[in-house]
Amino acid sequence: MPALQSHHTFALDTHCDKMMIITDPSELKQVDFTQPFCVLGEGSNTIFTASYHGTVLIIANKGMRVEEREQAWLLHCEAGENWHDLVQKTLVLNMPGLENLALIPGNVGAAPVQNIGAYGVELAQFVEYVEGFNLITGKTQKLSSEQCEFGYRDSVFKHQLKGQFIITRVGLSLPKLWQPNLSYGPLQQLDKPTPQQVFDAVVAVRQSKLPDPAVLANCGSFFKNPILPRDQVEQLLALYPTMPSYDVDAENKKVAAGWLIERAGLKGFAIGDIAVHDKQALVLVNRGQGTAQQLLAMVEHIQHTISDKFGVYLEHEVRLMDEQGEFHVRSHHESA
Fold first, then answer.
1. Rounded (5°) CA angle 100-251-240
2. Are 297 and 226 in contact (CB under 8 A)?
3. For residue 205, which of 104, 291, 107, 114 has the smallest C-alpha distance?
4. Active site includes 153?
5. Total domains, the chain
6. Of 198, 222, 247, which marks where a domain is finished?
7. pLDDT tens digit sequence for 80-115
8. Domain of residue 314, residue span
9. What is the pTM of this model?
10. pLDDT at 326
11. 307 has catalytic annotation
12. Pick the catalytic residue: 122, 153, 155, 169?
């Protein structure tokens, strides 16, 4: 059985029945999709908590083609490209826009599934199309940005097309008229920065807070920032005036999950070798010998604690897999 430990950045000791590395999308036509399968990029947002009874497909097709338009650059990016490498490449080519999304782990194909975002910018702002292999029709299909139904850390690939569509290429439109987005945190201190300076600032902040998975096993931000009704946020702010919150729409605001976890006194908390990172409470780390049981106990403990203290449910952003496929952890003890 192929080992999965080196194929997901949380590095639990697990295996799978079969592994296929896809370097050309046409190879997907040879896969028997009537049998259990799991699509994986760099494994930076997936944790295997048990040995998977199925085939793991690792998407590894590479390349990027640039198409110039009057108002924008259109990048045709293969799904197996490393995301951060792509961001760096766009700056070298003087095609900025993605710099706020620097150092987000994973590959290009995984980015639309999560609608990755950071520092006031989301991938959805740039997606022109997502191309992939439709398992139902057995053919290549191209979806427009609207058809992707992007939301906060969400897309159609998590819902109607889940298990039915494998992303093989992403089209990104980068406007030639660049405008920096300095709306979040430390970026607000930048004065008329260049794209490279924004990139450098984002990288510096992320490196100061987030552990390198190659050094300390982790999957980045473990929980989604909860989106709550404005009146609930106002009630929380009356009790906790320093709680960060951000406008989402007329009815809702987003609050910082990391702040809630830290305020609840869980920063640095450990169960066995699974710990809440001591520099960024939104990150769970595997200090070496962590087990799936310790991880699941940690997730439930955090959900339980935050629910008790703030009346807020935290949903994990990271995809959890067991023998049969994806599953969700929801603490049995929650506030009504």
1. 75
2. no
3. 104
4. yes
5. 3
6. 198
7. 999 999 999 999 999 999 999 999 999 999 999 999
8. 212-327
9. 0.89
10. 93
11. no
12. 153
